[in-house]
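pasting for the record
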Amino acid sequence: MWVWSLILLPCILLWPPDSGADGRLRLGVVSERPDRPSEALEQYGPLNAYLERRLGDAGVRVADLVVARDLAEMAQRIEAGEVDALIEGVIPTLKLERDTQRIRPSLLVWRKGQRQYHSLFFVRRDSPITGLQDLAGKTIAFESKRSTSAYFVPLFRLRDAGLEVVPAESEAPSPEALRYHFVGSELNQAYWVHDGRADAGAFNDGDWERTPAAIREELRVIARTPPLLRWLVSFSTDLAPEIEQAVSEVLLEMHLNPEGLATLAAAARIVKLEHLTDDDRANLAYWARVFEEFN
């Protein structure tokens, strides 16, 4: 009997003592519709259930999905130790990493067929606007406040170009200020510009290709941003390494089987996940510097 005790004891000691360390994983997401967090449950619930089935043999218990209404709430949940893994875009991830100091980007997520993308600025084909400087005193349509490619990144690029960018409802903007509207979707952005309701729009090159040809033919690209990684999976710095490894292995292999591929597609049209390369980390470092400069 004492022989078995000596054999089992190292296994018990190797299992970490705390959060995530009790063999539990809590996946966190930010709702794309703050007024309808239930949509995030429908979207990512199958992914959470898939992880639960696949990680059981590794002794990892997958808890209920953690859905935050916005980044501020997600930051609170992370700081409270209630989130072990997070799926988000680059800029929101960098903000949460800076604000909490408790998450670490670890995996790259292909989404909507893209590994990385550029944000494009576009205007009507017959517009006299030829560059970003010409947008002074004009209006631009963004998607939503939580969008990386259709708000955060274009906003940084515009500020870098020296433009004052303010909400359209600002009481007394400067005559030279570029005023922005949130219009809810990339397609709406294209329609707003096409119909003359905004002078310009900005979203990623994949959304440009997905814009109906009849609309796209009436638009013209005037500028683009440096490339940005599509999405990320980050892990809590408190998560036990063996749990992170087990979760990563499941995520990295999901696209190799029909059930996993369908589950990824249901979760924000994810295609597959990969390890971050050195070039990817350099890209993240670049955008981290940009983010700090304008925040």
